[in-house]
Amino acid sequence: MAAKPPPRPPTTPTGPSTPPAPKPRIPLELADAPTQRLYLFAAFLLVQALKVADLLAPAAPNAAAASSAPTSLLLDLINSSHLLKWIAVDLFAVQVVSWLRVPRFDWGWKALWLGRIALVLLDWLCFGSWTFSASMLLPTFLKSLFVSYVSTGERSTRLSKVLGNEHSHLGGQYTVHILAVSTALLNPISTCYCLSSAPKPEPILVPLILNNTAPSKLTYTLTSFTDPPTSQLITVPSSALVRPSHAAPTSEHNEDDDLPSWAVVPAASSAPRHRLPSAARDPSDPFDLSPSESLYYLPVTAIGSVRLESVLDAEGVPVRIRRKRGVEGWEETKIVRCPRAGFELKEGKKEAHRCLAGVAPESWSLELAVSGQEPLNVKWHSKEGDSPRRKSDGLDGIVGGASTVKDGIVRVPMNVSLVRAGRTTYFLDSVVDGCGNEVSFAGQSSSDSTSDSTGNSQAVVLSPSKSSKKARPVLPGMVDSRSVVVHRPPEIAFAGQCGRGEDVKLLQGKKTTLEIRLSGVEQEIEEERRRLRSGGKQGEDLWTVTVKFTPESGKSTTRDVQTSTSVVKLDVQEAGSYEIVNVKSKWCAGVVLVPSTCTVVLQPYPTLLTTFESLYDVCKSEIGLVSTLHFTGVPPFTVHYDLIEHGRGKPRTTRQKKRIHSSREEIRIEPGPGEWETRFVQLEDKWYNNVKLPAEAQYARKQKVQLVGDAQWRNAKQKRVVHSCEGETVSVDVELKGTAPWDLEYAVVGQPKQLITGIKSTPHSIDIDIPESIATRGGQFFLSLESVKDGNGCKRPLTTASDLTVEVQRTKPTARFHGLEGARSVVIREKDSAKIPVRLTGNGPWTIRYQPPPHPSRPNEDAPAQEIVAEKHNVDINLSDPRAGVYTLLSVRDEFCPGDVTETDWTISTLPRPSLRVEEKAGVVARNGSIIRKAVCEDAVDSVAFAFDGKAPFKASYTLSKGPQPAERHQLASIQSRADLTLYTGSAGHHTYHFTGVGDSLYTDPDAAGLVAPTSGRRGLLRLEQDVFPLPSASFLHGPKHGFCVNDPLASRSGDDLILKLEGQAPFEVELEVREEGHRTPKAFTIPNISSKEWPLVLPLNLHTPSAHSISIRRVQDANGCVRLVDSAVTKGAARTSLIVPVAEIASIAPVLPSVDACVGDFLEYVVQGAPPFTVKYSFEGKERSVPLQSSKFSRLAAEPGQFKIISVGHGQDQCRSNEVNLTKRIHPIPTASVQQGDSYVVDIREGDQTEIIFAFTGTPPFTFTYSRRKPQDRSKDKTVLETHTVTDIQSSTYSIFTSSEGTWSVSYIADAHCSYPPARQIDGASRLLKN
Fold first, then answer.
1. By C-alpha distance, which of 868, 877, 816 is closest to 845?
2. pTM surpassing 0.70?
3. What segments bear the compositional bias annotation Polar residues (predicted)?
């Protein structure tokens, strides 16, 4: 059984301590996550495709069963098996997906249970035993459109097609209009309008509301505002009026996008904003039109007062003019010139520049001017630099005086104070005149400041709109924005070294740079950068700096430096004084700060002065020199010198250098024996590099160094160790230098000196006697060199030579087996490895000899000795597959001497192996050594006893061979010494059990060495063989070919009717069971000695009741004595162990409703008694038809008028037929009713008049109909019924009424002597038959 998978970690990380998510079962290296998800999705689709195929497959198990027409019990059993099968498959699939842990498919438990519930619900919907029709969820009007039925003519048709629609039975409507009084109202919200100043302004559109009429033409009077005023009468045809447009808004967004649709007209362009009067109605829809009112716009292209004089409708009838009364009489619509504003350009430029100087702020005039109907209000805002913040300001109630008005333009004196440096821009926002007309400057362009484009065309009423490129609210010659830039005077001073008050060093032949810094210029620099980024050209520099130069000798000079940056780099190549005289910009003069003067001095080259002195040893031999150095310049100094070796062919040069931090230094040079020349070649200080020194005598010195005598111990730093095995002296080496021969003095520390003379070669070996006190017991002593005399006769003391340390050791090595007395042993399993611990003393490496125990096959012979080499004091003798017995330690030797051995014995013992034997009664031993077990039947219980010997728990391994199949590996485990092996009888065949090994708690791996063969068997072979007989089987090869009738015997009627198939060893004995549907107690029958394997069923039983009978196989036994008990609920493959025998009685049919008359669209319904399927024969209009029926209900849709008659009814294939049937139905057509011959008729009448409405009918009198009145449907969508009337017992085909009420008249119900429309019988209450 597979282990339960670990719980899934939480999906939401909780921090660093959250455990990692479990890895997928299939490694991602083998198949990545998308591939695994693709395979799972493909497998899911395959399972669903198999499910659909199973759903669409025939319900009967085979053709025979289908032909026998199984009852509902068999269908329920089949559907139940399908349902359980697919539920098990889907639940297993969900479990597999969860177990695989594929990324993104590793759902939580909630999602898994939701998936299981959804799949089980889907399986129940597909294979469950339930009844459902999709039409049950459809409304009545949709059922008639999509559900098809079988008609009396055996054609599939829809009920809606048979019944028709409402217009085919209830046609036409009669609409009556009562004419009302017509009125006209101009400018209903009393708004004052303004006209643009453009040369060809677009007209002003004044709203005109008409009630209950459409105009043909109108007349209005236009009176000017001049003194004296002039008037003119203007006539406008209806074609010149403008109707509102409800076009969708454009994608461009501005402040007017939220306007109502009534404010948009086809010629919409730019217009000013109009303020509604305080007494106006809802601003979102100021007109508040009623259903009878319509909106028009009157275009006006002149300034003045407009008065509506007359309006004529389409018939030439005058329309009554409605007027409003104002303070000074009847109101008239005023149209004035739109307000304008602008900034004058007195200096000719939009941008002015000022210099910030002093403490008091400077004043600057905006030069504001306005024009329009007084009083005027103007608003503007200002922005400083690129800041998004804006400061709003404005003036209200501007009225011109004699001194401020010129050409209708009012000039407003407006000054602003300049207190901060930077750019400030002033923008006009809007201007409002005395009538409330507001003009916005948002989006206006002032690039053309001199053109007179002052018009602002107006095509939107009461609202602003998009700006026109041809009309701007800016006064001619003016602009809508102005800027002033306030500059801060620049400040300048020296920076860097000069700023710190230091002199600047100028190197000879070089240049240096002086740093000058400007402050307070950040704004100008940023402005220049912004101008260049916006595409401006590189202009002249922003500042000019004047610098005065005074040399150490000569006249002073000045020069100007141009710059556009805050830091100025001034290159100089002469020493002297540099002074900043002045700085200025384009707009302001600057200020010179301190320090304003900088001094540049010339730095001289460094120099070197040298002296040399020779170095001598005790024998007055020259061994080197000392050089004294004197520097001028700035430290640190670096001096470079060459050591040149002569006398060995071509001179060899070595370059040396030394860094010096003072002005005087000594250098000691000892190059060694030979001819040498020392020469100083190069000098450096803080300021200058690579200053070459001339090839003069003061910088060079030659000398010859002699070779002198010397001596030292070889490897004096390493300790010399002497062991007793090597004798009583020690040999040491000494290395000598100088001219041979040498005389050498040395001494053992603490003893007199010793002299060796005439040494001719180096190195020289000396044998030293070990002191007696150390030679016997060991220790250490020291050797020292005293003096050396070379061949030149010069004797030198060796005071610097190191002493040599000599150590003497006198110990012998030892070896022993580690462990206490009696504990030097170990117990192991056979063929296991073992370790014997050994402890050593002395100096490694050691050579150890030991002797293993004798070989078991030769116990009287000693085994050969073994030898190992050890590097450490604690070692183990590693033995692989050691022999049991005593191991003896023979000898030991370390690096220098042989040693002694103690505790020389070590014992190794082995544990006994387990064994396995079979009981003697298990079977008979064959010639091949196998135990032959008695044969048994399939699925019988059989076991064999085995005995274990060893230490529990035990286990034995064996293989099971089932006939030709590959052998299977198994294990027999037990905690006791006796165990029973249950033999496999699950399948028939020859089974062989071959034991391969046995193990216990000590020998955990089973081994064949412990297998004990039975008596007279083969040594080491433990094998068991057994034959298993198959169980017999029985199934129905053929079911009933036809159904049975009442009183028929239950027996096979042909070679393919009720045939029983048997498998096994003949003869057979079969037990059958017959159960009548609805009865608990079945009847059992036992048939012995059946020799044939295909037996026709013959039972001593007659069928007396018209109900289904089930035949089931309960038991079958063959000649081997094997018995199979059959469960009919469990079916293996296609084998059937039970079947249903239908028994039918004589079929009969009766109508659901006793009435003889029916209508087109009705369902003709009958109930058939008997066992389905049935065959029904009927005739319609003289044509006979035979129809198969699978249920007990028979229904047909009456699709046309005529006579319908049932002739006969019987079971499937005309069995048990009833021929004396005579049921007749008369089908009548549906009546119709129409208004004015089915047309939609509209009539207009005056108040007090009447009109006649005529209704027409078709069908069989007498008629009954219902008519109703609604609001006029051509003007209103309100379906509310205002009145309803029903008239009965009409014997003629027409009927009329008179009315003076306004509305739409129509018929809602019609009935004749037999039928009605809409049908009185609801569709949902009738039984229906879908198309077969």
1. 868
2. no
3. 455-466
Rounded Cα gap, residues 1043 and 396, in angstroms: 108
CA-to-CA distance for 281 and 191, rounded, in angstroms? Answer: 12
In terms of phi and psi (left: phi > 0; alpha: psi -120 to 50; beta: otherwise), the region of 822 is left
How far, in whole angstroms, is CA 808 from its chain's centroid? 80
Q: Residue 55 is inside which H or E element, if any?
A: helix 33-56
- Cα–Cα distance measured from residue 565 to residue 160, given in angstroms and rounded to the nearest whole number: 91
Triad 907, 912, 913: Cα angle to 5°: 135
Task: Read off the pLDDT band of 521 (50, 70, 90).
Answer: confident
Could you give the CA distance from residue 1045 to residue 1214 in angstroms, rounded to a whole number? 12
616: helix, coil or strand? strand
Per-residue pLDDT tens for 1022-1063?
999 999 999 998 988 888 887 777 777 888 888 888 889 998
Q: In terms of Cα–Cα distance, which of 173, 175, 149 is closest to 161? A: 149
Write the secondary structure of 250-303 as one string of H (helix), E (strand) and C (coil). CCCCCCCCCCCHHHCCCCCCCCCEECCCCCCCCCCCCCCCCCCEEEEEEEECCC
Q: Is 910 helix (H, G, I), strand (E, B) or coil?
A: strand
- On whether the CB atoms of residues 459 and 207 are closer than 8 A, the answer is no
From the list 751, 787, 791, the residue with the least C-alpha distance to 771 is 751
Buried b (16+ CB within 10 A) or exposed e, 168-200: ebbbbbbbbeeeeebbbbbbbbebbbbbbbbee
Pair type for strands 567-572 and 597-603: unpaired
283-297, 817-831, 1276-1290 — which one is most confidently predicted on average?
Answer: 1276-1290
Neighbours of 1163 (CB within 10 A): 20
In contact, 749 and 782? CB cutoff 8 Å = yes
Locate the DSSP E strands across 770-813.
779-789, 795-797, 804-809
Write phi, then psi, for 324 (nearest 5 degrees).
-105, 145
Q: Is the pLDDT of residue 33 over 60?
A: yes
Number of helices and strands in the chain (H, E): 9, 101
CA distance 53 to 312: 79
What phi and psi values does residue 1034 have, to the nearest 5 degrees?
-145, 140
Contact yes or no for 1078/1105 (Cβ under 8 A)? no
- Which DSSP string do the residues of 1192-1239 spell out, in sequence order? SEEEEE--SSEEEEEEEEEEGGG-S-B----EEEEEEPPPEEEEGGG-
Question: In angstroms, rounded to a whole number, what is the distance separating the alpha carbons of residues 590 and 561?
Answer: 14
CB hemisphere CA count around 265 (13 angstroms) = 27
Query: Long-range contact list for 124-128, CB < 8 A, 24+ apart?
Result: 124/83, 126/51, 126/55, 126/86, 127/55, 127/79, 127/82, 127/83, 127/86, 128/79, 128/83
Residue 734 near residue 717 (C-beta atoms within 8 A): no
Residues 1148-1151: contacts with CB within 8 Å, 24+ apart?
1148/1209, 1148/1218, 1148/1221, 1149/1176, 1149/1194, 1149/1206, 1149/1209, 1149/1218, 1149/1221, 1149/1223, 1150/1223, 1151/1223, 1151/1225
Strand partners for 732: 766
With b for 16 or more beta-carbon neighbours within 10 A and e for fewer, the 853-870 pattern comes to beeeeeeeeeeeeeeeeb
Residue type at 242? V
Centroid of chain to Cα 1126: 57
Contact assessment for residue 377 and residue 398, using Cβ atoms and an 8 Å cutoff:
yes
Query: Under DSSP, is residue 1287 helix (H, G, I), strand (E, B) or coil?
Result: strand
Angle between helical axes of 72-100 and 33-56 (0-180°, round to 10): 180
Q: How many CB atoms lie within 10 A of CB 71?
A: 19
pLDDT 10s digits, 1226-1252 = 999 989 999 987 788 888 775 667 888
For residue 1282, pLDDT beyond 70: yes
- Integer Cα distance of 605 and 337 in angstroms: 89
